[in-house]
Design a protein that fits this description.
With 178 residues, the chain is α+β, with helices and mostly antiparallel strands. 28% of the residues lie in helices and 37% in strands.
Length: 178
């Protein structure tokens, strides 16, 4: 075996041992709200409940937790920018002692139709690991944004009303001259 291969194996093993040593410090669970719609559509809100627990024997310093959303439609697999989807971007905790739990409700406004997975992620100041809840999958149904039965009366009615007013004014002006 060459020196490069041995060195690479040692580096990989040391990184793996560091990550696995601290991987059990934080446990995150995620569940949908019982009031969530069983058939969510664009414009609806969904709420998710997370419980973040320090299951280690040491305090966790500088914990940051955030919601992560990915689209999983075939050909459109990508992370979703949550700027329009959620006003609840992240939470921070200065210190979590062993056994401490943090319960949070994460609201999401459904902006676009498709299939999605949501997860809660967390990281702390002193460990290289990113902790993640098991993902939850949901489907957002398409909802027509423009309803033609509401648009057509305005689109055709308003111009007809204006034309009618113009003819009425012209007729009134002719009668006033006579």
């Amino acid at each position: 075996m060459s020196f490069k291969k041995i060195f690479f194996a040692i580096v990989v093993l040391s990184i793996t041992s560091v990550v696995s040593t601290h991987a059990g410090t934080i446990c995150i669970s995620l569940a949908p709200d019982t009031a969530n719609s069983s058939r969510p559509a664009m414009g609806n809100f969904l709420h998710f409940h997370s419980i973040i627990k320090n299951i280690g024997d040491k305090s966790v310093e500088g914990l940051v937790a955030w919601i992560s959303l990915i689209e999983i439609d075939p050909g459109h697999e990508q992370p979703v920018d949550l700027e329009d989807w959620s006003a609840h971007k992240a939470i921070t905790v200065a210190r979590m002692k062993p056994g401490d739990t943090l319960k949070t409700v994460w609201p999401i406004r459904l902006i676009q139709h498709g299939r999605y997975r949501v997860a809660i992620c967390a990281a702390d100041r002193n460990h290289p690991a990113i902790y993640t809840s098991p993902p939850l999958e949901f489907h957002v149904a398409k909802k027509p944004v423009i309803q033609s039965n509401r648009i057509f009366p305005v689109a055709f009615g308003l111009p007809l009303l204006l034309i009618g007013l113009i003819f009425y004014r012209k007729r009134q002006n002719r009668r006033a001259r006579i």
